[in-house]
Amino acid sequence: xxxxxxxxxxxxxxxxxxxxxxxxxxxxxxxxxxxxxxxxxxxxxxxxxxxxxxxxxxxxxxxxxxxxxxxxxxxxxxxxxxxxxxxxxxxxxxxxxxxxxxxxxxxxxxxxxxxxxxxxxxxxxxxxxxxxxxxxxxxxxxxxxxxxxxxxxxxxxxxxxxxxxxxxxxxxxxxxxxxxxxxxxxxxxxxxxxxxxxxxxxxxxxxxxxxxxxxxxxxxxxxxxxxxxxxxxxxxxxxxxxxxxxxxxxxxxxxxxxxxxxxxxxxxxxxxxxxxxxxxxxxxxxxxxxxxxxx
Length: 295
Description:
The structure is a single chain. The protein has helices at 11-20, 23-30, 34-48, 64-92, 104-121, 173-179, 201-208, 225-233, 243-246, 278-294, and strands at residues 53-56, 59-62, 96-102, 125-131, 145-148, 157-165, 167-172, 193-195, 218-221, 239-242, 252-254, 264-271. By secondary structure, it is an alpha/beta fold. The protein is elongated. The two termini are 51 Å apart.
């Protein structure tokens, strides 16, 4: 017998038949069908080159080879159960605190529902959430994990691009009812606009197109991204926000769908020492899967 090609999936049918004494009872125990159990046992006998059961009027009687295999199979089953138990125990003993840094909208809107899901998967882990638009320094341990729109350059950090954040021009429906809906990007020059403060993206973007934005059009400038979102939600003017924020308020409507705004990449960043921390690795793996699905 070539053990490299041995089909271990046939063993459960054999064990069930050995314990229950018939193909029908074994099939019921496995939630399978009698022909399937019979076929698995026949395939197993062919692989081993020996008969495992004598078919009698009362059911199945194990042969000497069948008795020896049953003893070995039970040992294999016990080992598999012990392995599963060990893995489950290691997951349940993941305990401690993980510090996550993210921008304000990500920390305030995107992450909380995901952290609620993670609580069910990793109940022993507590989270310290740093909501800041400043890039936390992972090298100085200001955070264990960072979610950022900028890729870090330090060689000792591991950065994984896990998705991208789509952006849209939008405004509250009350503002649009009051001021009208822009039909072309150039129409924005006649609307009230919400922009960043230190780096004003809207004037810079229009300047690249050969237009100058009148200063009075920028009715609010702020680098606080949640204040920015609140200004748009209250109808102060038109702004550019992430689509995952738009989904939280149906009263804020997308405008200028033809305006192609480059999406922002989102990077999941950790220190290389992640490999030595099971709890950080567990949170990292969870976010790497959950964040793209939400985006």
